Here is the input.
Amino acid sequence: MKIIRANDYADISRKAANILSAQIILKPDCVLGLATGGTPVGAYQQLVEWYNKGDLDFSGVTTVNLDEYRGLPKDHPESYWSFMHRHLFDHVNINPARINLPDGTNPDADAACAQYNQIIHSVGGIDLQLLGLGPNGHIGFNEPGKAFELETHCVDLTEATIEANKRFFDGNEDLVPRQAYTMGIKTIMQARKVLVVANGLAKAKAVKAVVSGPVTPECPGSILQLHPDCTLVADEEALSLL
Ligand code: F6R
Here is the structure.
C-alpha cells in the first residue's frame, strides 16, 4: 500500500481530489466508486471548485456509491443519495442517468443487492474506488466479522458505527437506521485502483490495523494490503501509531 502523508485535512482533500481528477482526465468515461461520510467532503468541495474553473468535465463519468441506508427515502437529508447530490452531483455536469447507489428504498434486500451487483458488472467494474475508514476498520459498511462478504449485501450496523454516525442524525442514535446495503469486499478489491482517506486521531488505530495488522475480516480494511494499487492519504494524527 502506498502511503501519502498530508499536513492536515485540507491537504488530504487536495491530494485526494488530485488523484480523482487525474482519473477523470485520463479516462473521461471512467467509473468512480464513491464514498459518503465526513472524510471525503473536502475532496468533493475541491472537485467542485476545479469543475467551476473549467478544469474538470464529469459528463462521461459513471459513479457507483459504496452503500446506502436501508429504509430511508431517497430525499431524506441523511440518505446517501441526498448526501452525494448535496456535496457533489448537484454542482457538476454529471449525467443523472450515470449516478448509481444501492436502492435503500427497496425492502427486498436480496433483490436490491442483486440489482446493484448487476449495475456494477454492467458498467464494467470500478476504475477508482474512494474509501473512508471506520474507526473499527470497516470499509463501505463491511463491518468486522467472521468472513469477508463478497458482493453487495445487507448489513446490520454495529453499535460502534451507529455511535459514529449519530452525529448526522441530530446526535440521536435512535434515528440512525439499523441496516444498510453495501458493496462487498470482492467488488472493492476488484476496483482497478483504490484511494483511502483518513484523518485525525480517531482513525489512528484503524489505520495501523489496515496498514500493518494481520489481514483478517475482524478488520475489513486490512484486506487492502493485498490490493495491487491502493493508496492511503492521511494526516500525521491518523498515521501516528504506525
Ligand atoms: C461511507 C462509508 C463508510 C465511511 C466510514 C468513515 O460511504 O461507507 O465506510 O467511509 O464510516 O466515515 P467518516 O469519513 O465519516 O469518518
Q: What stands out?
A: The chain has a mean pLDDT of 97. The beta strands are 2-6, 31-34, 62-65, 67-69, 99-100, 128-131, 153-156, 179-182, 193-198, 230-235. The longest helix spans residues 9-26.
